[in-house]
Amino acid sequence: MATLTIRNLPDEVKRELRLAAAARGVSMEQEARDRLATSTAAPARSRKATSEELLALGEALRDGRPLDPRFRSLSQKEISDLVSEGKL
After folding, report:
1. Where are the alpha helices (DSSP H) in 1-74?
2. b/e per residue, 28-52, with b = 16+ CB within 10 A?
3. Helix (H, G, I), strand (E, B) or coil at 48
4. Considering Cα of 5, then 36, then 2, then 56, what sign does the dihedral take?
5. What is the pLDDT of the chain when averaged over all its residues?
6. What pLDDT is recorded for position 14?
7. pLDDT at 5
8. Could you tell me how far CA 74 lies from the centroid of its own chain?
9. pTM above 0.70?
10. What pLDDT is stored for residue 52 in this prediction?
């Protein structure tokens, strides 16, 4: 596996990574890896979410925690519509 060093990362970005990682119970490095992998993968709308992903999404929405990066750009209405249409 490759190693990546990121210099001059804004404090605000690091703080967001740390908070999101804590909310998910993973390390900050894992959060960054997941976000990078997600940002280079197909959009959430092109595949169905797993039941675990839907459960995590529902819990994050209920608890006001940061959303998984794959769903962050979607509004609650869009997520609700995708679920009701059977796309998620």
Report:
1. 11-24, 28-40, 51-63, 69-72
2. eeebbebbeebeeeeebeeeebeee
3. coil
4. positive
5. 80
6. 93
7. 92
8. 11
9. no
10. 79
